[in-house]
Amino acid sequence: MTYSIVARHPETGEIGIAVASRFFACGVQVPWVSATAAVASQAFVNPLWGIEGLSRLDAGEAPIAILADFLDRDGGQASRQAHFLAPDGQMVQHTGADCVPWAGHVSAPDISVAGNMLVGPEVIEDTLASYLAHPDLPFADRLLTAMEAGEAAGGDKRGKQAAALVIHAGQPYAYIDIRADDHADPLAELRRLLAVSEERYMLFAKSMATSDNFSGMTDRTPLDAAIAKSEQYRKENNLKSQSYADPPA
Fold this sequence. Notes:
The chain is of the alpha+beta class. Helix content is 36%, strand content 24%. The strands form 2 sheets. Strands 7-8-1-2-9-10 form a 6-stranded antiparallel sheet, covered by helices on one side. The longest helix has 20 residues, at 186-205.
């Protein structure tokens, strides 16, 4: 019912998952991300694969051992699909024998793509190829561009409904976590939300507390200056806001 990409940026340490599906609110159950690891659990989804799998990855357990345990314990494993990315870069993928075709997975260093109920293998192949072809894009944009390539190749054979993008940047909280739960063009909606996040939110995110700095930015003067500079740039270049909210005060 889904295709997803799990990736880590080797230079910045960002780690994230993007997912799209003809299934309501796929972003609730599929992506599980921490500061250093990620699990995407999909097909006839078992969210415990994501919850427990992520916890065990963070504790240092090898993904191949976690997967072996899940396959042994889960009577529905033949209908599950999942891919895991560990803090040390180890990766494991599983596409159960009973996943609805087309179903399968591909990978490269620090990147895994998997899908089921797809029009064909070109969906995940083009998603991977797009990601590899755009190393200079910001990480969020790179993931979304890759997903758009998969959609252009046919995506979920039943159509479109939901999509999500979750990214951590070395912290226990996500710095971007956006979803379109029921939308005619969910990836386009994610693209809009990402653009809205760049207007103010991404500037604010840089001021938030971190594991190394519990207080974060306590003087908002630099943040206000950055916001003013961004708004002036947008005004000078006639860049309209993508937000549906009222203009900021």
